[in-house]
Amino acid sequence: MNHVMELLKSHTSVRKFTNKLVDDQLLKEIIQASQYASTSNHIQAYTIIRVKDQAKRKTLAKLSGDQPYVEECPIFLVFCADLNRLGKACSIHHEVIESSSTETFILATVDTALVAQNIMIAAESAGLGGVYIGGIRNNPQGVCDLLQIPHHVYPVFGMCLGYPEKINATKPRLPLSLILKEDTYSTDGDENHLTEYDELISNYYKVRTNNERSNTWTEGIATYLKNKQRPHMKDFLHNKGFEMK
Amino acid sequence: MNHVMELLKSHTSVRKFTNKLVDDQLLKEIIQASQYASTSNHIQAYTIIRVKDQAKRKTLAKLSGDQPYVEECPIFLVFCADLNRLGKACSIHHEVIESSSTETFILATVDTALVAQNIMIAAESAGLGGVYIGGIRNNPQGVCDLLQIPHHVYPVFGMCLGYPEKINATKPRLPLSLILKEDTYSTDGDENHLTEYDELISNYYKVRTNNERSNTWTEGIATYLKNKQRPHMKDFLHNKGFEMK
């Protein structure tokens, strides 16, 4: 396994950072290198908003479900799926983009995720660490108001970056047999693999928390997903011009 | 700029591959390292189907809009956003997942994109090249029938991987000033930057095609997006249990 793969395999979320500032030039290099991520038909349907203003950071931390590292981290980025720029490109040539389709929503969301993952990898390669902030979708309209995010643009997630104060052990992932299939989506043997993985995760939590936590993976999933997550997203997106037609 | 960033910055889509086979052990290492991508609440909501069967490959190449490299490439992967496994995890604990919400659709789609991008980077670090196949959504129901993809799972994109026969020059990306904003989504100066980028892209095509092609970026976008893309996606997803509620 080469050292790029070792880097990928060492990823853990970092939420505590040292006071060391991140050089602006380094951040610029990270983002510019990351822009070479694949993009459907070269549409590059994303915009990244770096939030430096501390009052805005404080509000974002609150809007994201009281996550203090959103306020405290050296670099905070809001990743937006962006059809607005594409609309401008079309209007220059007297065309109108069909921006309210499910497909354009997928195109822009995937483009945003690909470039963000490159940024996470590039940052980690430079000794930084970070965490995605899905909580940016807790109150996406509040985020849009705060950052003046226009129609046909929506914040998909945030990202904290900085020099890690501490790096945790990696959390075990699902066994390959569960996530990689051959020629058909077959679930033969999945139940046994799930049971094994449940034990692995339970042991991981026990070790990490001095036996204070011991839930399995399936328990964690059931607890998380039994409640409808972010039920406002449909209406929010509809109001933003993403109508999922 | 370190060599990981250099690797990211050197990305180009590869559609022509040598006959050299990709070692199964290498593919396994690539995917296992890539699984450490961030995942919302550790849900890991994706399944990858490797398609080896040549008859299926031929059908997939046709379903994806007659893209011959889907049939010819050494490795072809179909990346699926997967809520089915999460549903099983919930049912073990007598809970029911709300799998038809817009939010769970975003969660699973983003999870899938993050792990896929890690796989692209890991593959490139090992000397492979590849290309995403969004065309897998041209006829997603056909893909589901062929690969027996169940309810609450949908194919987001495919990916061809192999040893590159030839590596193209990279295609210039949008200038940083267009995609990176500070504190607000401001579009001041965007028009001038778009004009400059249009010239850059036009020159890029001229050089690459011996003056046969010279369109600008905004022209390309207008031509691509003036027609509604994949209008079947809403109904397809609805029928698959992704109701975007």
Question: If you compute it from the alpha carbons, what radius of gyration of chain A comes out, rounded to the nearest whole angstrom?
Answer: 20 Å
Number of DSSP strand runs of chain A: 5
In whole angstroms, how far apart are the ends of chain A? 44 Å
Quaternary status: homodimer
Mean pLDDT of chain A: 96
Q: What can be said about the biggest beta sheet of chain A?
A: 4 strands, antiparallel
* Main β-sheet, spatial strand arrangement of chain A: 1-2-4-3
Major interchain interface with per-chain residue totals: A-B, 113 and 113 residues
Counting H and I runs of at least 4 residues, what is the number of helices of chain A? Answer: 11
Q: Indicate the structural class of chain A.
A: alpha+beta
